[in-house]
Every structure is written in structure tokens, then in C-alpha cells.
Specification:
The protein has helices at about 10-20, 30-40, 70-75, 80-85, 85-90, 100, 105-110, 120-125, 235-255, and strands at about 5, 25, 45-50, 60, 65, 130-135, 135-140, 145-150, 150-155, 160-165, 175-180, 190-195, 200-205, 210-215. It is about 30% helix and about 25% strand. The longest helix is centred in the C-terminal third of the chain and has 22 residues, at about 235-255.
């Protein structure tokens, strides 16, 4: 691993100027970043730790507001989340393993833009929005607008995800299902998130290079499916058809 400077600002105001330049990277949980640095894929000269900037709170005032530095484990264990957004807690139980969830953060998981992650398609289906801050100010965008492709986001240089806001579930039915080819906490071959009630929303992932909204089974044929070590494109297309039907049935049963 190439040598780097580690900075630890104590506020967001201190952190943002330190992210100027192509050689600077934010450090949240670091679970993905460190692997990419060890592999030589990324060679930042400056890491800006976000651990001390105060973005690790979970709050609710009708909607659910999650600070970007909240760990996946804290979100999974939150009583508020378990009671009012149980699909998020259920999904997190098989997201990688507990050692990773103890360290990985919500903001880092979203910003990494790996299409095999479980939270992005679910948050997209739930109509969640992310707050993004940079030198030029703050903006809020839907989670689905965050993604541009495989490991690519629409974040501008120096911008950070600072929070995620999830609307109330109300009487909507929600389900997230994934198919893994090995253990339950492995990266999925396909993931399907379904929200029924009001505006029905269906997002697929893992088979596509980003969380992708579809209208139903008829739309699967037109998808550009990405084959990988978890399965061929044709295999994943068939899996999507099967898991979409299951997810729709589960979401219908979950409506209350």
C-alpha cells in the first residue's frame, strides 16, 4: 500500500476543505477503501477521517433520518428501525458479516456504488433521499440519482453524503429478496426490492450495474444484465423473474 497522510477533522466544516484535490479521499468505515488501496486500485495521498464530525445519529420525526457515519450494525440494532422500518433491519442481517457491519457505515456503503450491495435498491424502492454537502453548499437527491454506473456516482469532487432520509412506510407493503450462490451473507447474484401501495416501486440490483427501476416482469427482458462470478447474464435474468414474483407476493402479504 502506498503511503498516505491521515487527517481527523472534528467538524464537517473542517473536513470539506481537506477533500480538495484528486489525491484526497474521505474515510468512513474504510472496509472497501482499504481493500482497494491494498490492491493498488486507489492511491490517495490524503485520507480524511469522518469519525469525529458528528454524523452518526439516527433520528425520527415521521421520516427516518440516518447520519452517514451510522454503522450498519447500529442501524440494524436500532429499536426505532426495527419497529417502524423492519425491512431495513431484516435486510442488514445478511449484509456481509457482523464484523463488517460493526465498521462499515451507511454513507460509505452508498458512496461505494457497488451494485451488489443490499441497501441501495431497498432505499431506492422506499423513496429515500440523500443529503450531499460540499464547498458549494448542500443538495438533496433521490438515492437512485446517486448512481451513474458500476462503482460510479454522481457526487462531485469534494462532496460527501451526510445523511439519508427514509419516508414513513405507512400502509405500504415492502420486501427485499436476494439470491446468493454461496452463504446467505455472500454478495447476491440478484437483488429485488418491491414497495406496494401509493406509488408502486420495484428496483433490481446485482444483475445490473446500478440499482435499476423496472415496471414489472415484462421489463426484465429489456434489461442489460451483467454476468459475473455469481452467474451468467441468462441465469441472472431467469433468477430475476423468479425473485420478482416472490418479492411481490411478500410485499402484498406485508401490507398493513
Amino acid at each position: 500500500m502506498a503511503p498516505f497522510e491521515l487527517l481527523q477533522p472534528r467538524s464537517l466544516g473542517e473536513a470539506l476543505p481537506l477533500l480538495d484535490g484528486e489525491d484526497a479521499r474521505p474515510l468512513s468505515g474504510g472496509t472497501a477503501l482499504m481493500l482497494m488501496m491494498k490492491a493498488g486500485v486507489l492511491r490517495p495521498k490524503r485520507l480524511v477521517s469522518l469519525r469525529r464530525v458528528g454524523l452518526d445519529r439516527i433520528e425520527t420525526n415521521g421520516s427516518l433520518r440516518i447520519g452517514a457515519m451510522t454503522t450498519l450494525r447500529a442501524l440494524e440494532k436500532s429499536e426505532v428501525v426495527r419497529e417502524a422500518w423492519p425491512v431495513i433491519a431484516r435486510t442488514l442481517r445478511t449484509l456481509s458479516n457482523v464484523r463488517v457491519r460493526n465498521v462499515a457505515t451507511v454513507g460509505g456503503a452508498l458512496a461505494h456504488a457497488d451494485p451488489h450491495m443490499d441497501l441501495p435498491p431497498l432505499l431506492c424502492a422506499l423513496g429515500a433521499r440523500v443529503t450531499v454537502e460540499g464547498k458549494k453548499g448542500r443538495r438533496t437527491i433521490p438515492v437512485e440519482a446517486l448512481y451513474a454506473g458500476y462503482l460510479e456516482t454522481t457526487l462531485k469532487p469534494g462532496e460527501l453524503i451526510t445523511a439519508v432520509e427514509v419516508p414513513r412506510l405507512g400502509k405500504r407493503g415492502v420486501a427485499y429478496l436476494k439470491c446468493t450462490t454461496r452463504s446467505a451473507d455472500d454478495w447476491p447474484a440478484v437483488g429485488v426490492a418491491v414497495v406496494l401501495g401509493g406509488e408502486d416501486r420495484i428496483f433490481v440490483s446485482a444483475a445490473t450495474d446500478r440499482p435499476t427501476r423496472i415496471s414489472g416482469e415484462s421489463a426484465i427482458s429489456a434489461l442489460k444484465i451483467e454476468g459475473d462470478l455469481h452467474g451468467s447474464a441468462e441465469y441472472k435474468k431467469q433468477l430475476l423473474r423468479v425473485y420478482l414474483k416472490r418479492a411481490i407476493d411478500e410485499a402484498r402479504n406485508a401490507r398493513h
